[in-house]
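Please check our next protein.
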Amino acid sequence: MKAIRNLSVFALVLILCMTLVCLPASAHRVVVVGQVHEMQVMAYYGGGAPMVDANVEIYAIKNGQEELYLTGKTDAEGLFYFEPKIGVSEYRAVVEATGHKGEEFVNLTAGAGVAGAEQEGTGLPLMQLFAGFGYLLGIAGIAMLLKARKMEK
């Protein structure tokens, strides 16, 4: 009887923790990532879905002056590729689709820009999962400690 009650308390704590760990998705956030070599622009929505057939504008920045270098559309995976312009090491990629817009600056001398992903906190979903299980274990441990103290009295 006690084992069944302990199991139901554990199941309740598990369900509560899993609902608290799930965070709401941001439907209007757009993340754009650029890579060095053959330049790759990867555009996806905040939930991870690729931006398919999104309009892409690539601006080349040289000596502080910005000029439109290329335009195009993303493929079925939300990717757009282009060759870097000779003598240009800094770019601005702008991606827009159905009212959603994102942009990212890429400096080839400093490395590819992924600041948008880091600022929005999308880079650590696995850590959020482990944190949720940590909360679960902590709450279960506190519940077991309180149960053991009641049994001693």
